[in-house]
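User: quick one, fold this
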Amino acid sequence: MIKVDFEKGNGLVPAIVQDVHTKEVLMLGYMNEESLKKTLETKLATYWSRSRNELWTKGETSGHYQHVKNIYVDCDEDTLLLEVEQDGAACHTGHRSCFYRKLDEQ
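Assistant:
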């Protein structure tokens, strides 16, 4: 049975979010056991907010939900990859992806 090792990250694991069709990386969030369980139950991506110390389902306020199609765990069992169908923008700035800027751009 595949498991997720939440102990390595003090109860949190990074969750890379990718468009299921285009494979574009949309964002990175953090999940704990509770948010993973809710995601599996609802098929809507739910994360742990480190700044607010609470669960948040992506799209609750914006309407830009992430419909989870697949979840993979890496070889060390401490990182997740979510393949999603994204409603609208994934980034809170309104961009489709949070990764819209190159580091060397000024």
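User: anything notable?
Assistant: The radius of gyration is 14 Å.
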